[in-house]
Amino acid sequence: MATWFALIENPFGLPRRRSGRNRLHGTPKTVLLSGARGRIVGLIAWGWEAVLYAHEVILNELAQGLRPVADGVEWFEGLSDDDRRKALHTLALFCGEARAGEDDVAESIARSGIRPTHTPAVMLTKWRFGMDRLPASELTKSFRLLVALFGIADTRRRTLHCVGGCGHEWHNLSDQPQDPT
Q1: Counting Cβ atoms within 10 Å, is residue 70 exposed (0-12), middle (13-18) or buried (19+)?
Q2: Are 95 and 153 in contact (CB under 8 A)?
Q3: Could you give the CA distance from residue 116 to residue 122 in angstroms, rounded to a whole number?
Q4: Helices and strands: H and E segment counts in the chain
Q5: What is the DSSP track for 84-103?
Q6: How many Cα atoms are found within 13 Å in the side-chain-facing hemisphere of 22?
Q7: Domain segments of the chain: what residues?
Q8: How many CB atoms lie within 10 A of CB 76?
Q9: Pair 145, 158: CB distance under 8 Å
Q10: How far apart are CA 54 and CA 8, in angstroms?
Q11: Closest listed residue to residue 35, CA positions, set 10, 9, 55, 17
């Protein structure tokens, strides 16, 4: 059975990627959806395995080095202020799920290219994650910093816990076609 992927719009207007296999007779049932702007968004089939929103895929691709950070920053700056804050909140949650630690802070500041005296770096040094509440001028710096922290923690987690392979869809992104967002 082949795994398939589809992009579907979520309530925030960002596309959502679903993957799955049809467990009924081994063939996928496909349905075309049209998005809010009348464009075709993707295909759906029965038997979902995992659901990844497009912004989750992008954040994981950035952390794994599958997408250049410059492209990620360009994508981030293209979001509305509200969506940038939601992306930062999601990124902070991903850092926690990847088991980022205070020992990773110095390396993430160095990797991000921001100065240790910038507000997001000072906040992270004190292990504070309220960067989504900072002024708009600090959001891109926060994004670069949290992507670096997530990359460090996720790399460690993949090498320690998923070295023999795993079923995490977000760790198998290199096998999937990159979405156009």
Answers
A1: exposed
A2: yes
A3: 6
A4: 6, 5
A5: HHHHHHHHHHHHHHTT--GG
A6: 10
A7: 4-53, 56-161
A8: 24
A9: no
A10: 9
A11: 9
Tell me the pLDDT of the chain averaged across its residues.
73
- CA gap 91, 58 in Å, rounded: 11
The single residue listed with the structure tokens 């290219």 is: 113
Asked whether 145 and 72 are in contact (CB, 8 A), the reply is: no
Q: Cα–Cα distances in Å, from 179 out to 27, 55, 58, 99, 127?
A: 23, 10, 9, 27, 33
Residue 64: CB partners within 8 Å, gap ≥ 6? 151, 154, 155, 158, 171, 173, 174
Tens-digit pLDDT profile for the chain (181 aa)? 333 344 443 434 444 444 444 333 333 333 333 333 333 333 344 344 445 677 888 888 898 888 999 999 999 999 999 999 999 999 999 998 889 999 999 999 999 999 999 999 999 999 888 889 999 999 999 999 999 999 999 989 888 877 776 655 555 556 554 554 5
* Burial of 88 from C-beta contacts in 10 A (0-12 / 13-18 / 19+): buried
- Which structure tokens are listed for 129? 């994650």
